[in-house]
Task: structure prediction
Amino acid sequence: MGLLDLFLRSRPKGTANVAKERLQILVAHDRAERHRPPYLQKLQREILEVIRKYVEIDLNAVSVNYEQGDTHEVLELNIVLPETARHRA
Amino acid sequence: MARIIVITSGKGGVGKTTTSAALAMGLAQRGHRTAVVDFDVGLRNLDLIMGCERRVVYDFVNVINQEANLNQALIRDKRCDDLYVLPASQTRDKEALTKDGVGRVLDELSQSFDYVVCDSPAGIEHGATMAMYYADDAVVVTNPEVSSVRDSDRMLGILSSKSKRAETNDEPIREYLLLTRYDPLRVQSGEMLSVKDVQDILSLSLLGVIPESKAVLSASNSGVPVVLDRESDAGQAYGDAVGRYLGEDVPHRFIEAERKGFLRRLFGG
Result:
């Protein structure tokens, strides 16, 4: 380690802060996932199947969200129908 | 009744077996009757780290299957009368550890020991879940590195949902963080996650910080738990961690880099 390093060391470098930021996001996501009921994915698929009997939509058009509060749980379904919905029945 | 401690991490190679050996030896040296149990069925290694690999006759699975009794399988440590090792089996049958079988063996150990240290295999499969199922306390061994921290967090999720205490709504497992392979110099230069960074993410009570140390490899080379190497930083850090586990107020060491003098910084060295 020489004189040059002494000056270089004065500004923050290294990748630890990047690691921390990435981990914070990832861990928050993992934890939210962990608290979701395990049936959500199946629920989403089955709802999609039912709607597809009547309207043509793709997988992303159905979103299933789950949130947990202190005293209540919210299951939110959001279904986006295409502008020109083609009726099948 | 013994206190059952699981040493776990999710990720492999972070120091679970080293930690199991060191904590078990540290507890036994303070006069607590301690058994350390290898749950890594198929990849037995604790006996090597403990230096008793040539004295293995019967193993954990033999005891579960009632092919041997517990006293025949337990290996008494030659350096410390209060320490016993229960080696893992080399069978490839991962299902050999049944929930009932493990429960029975831990119950029997509980009758004659103060502490039972369970050395978990890596991963979140059967062996790892068996190792933590009956635990009262968990030591989560983590390296200051992204994948290890993430896996530790996943392990915490499993501890709080799949353990016996969780299933029976008992008081939750007490969880501790043990940060290993810590390099204060690299932390100082911003290359490595700091103790605080890891604690911010995992929010666990800090049992100890074990510095990256040559003593760990040389201890495992010779089959001596590193806590017995009192000259070494890692050995002392494990000794401190044992004290903290037992409720002593021991200040953390080896977290700060040694300060170099101005001249040494200027001219290197």
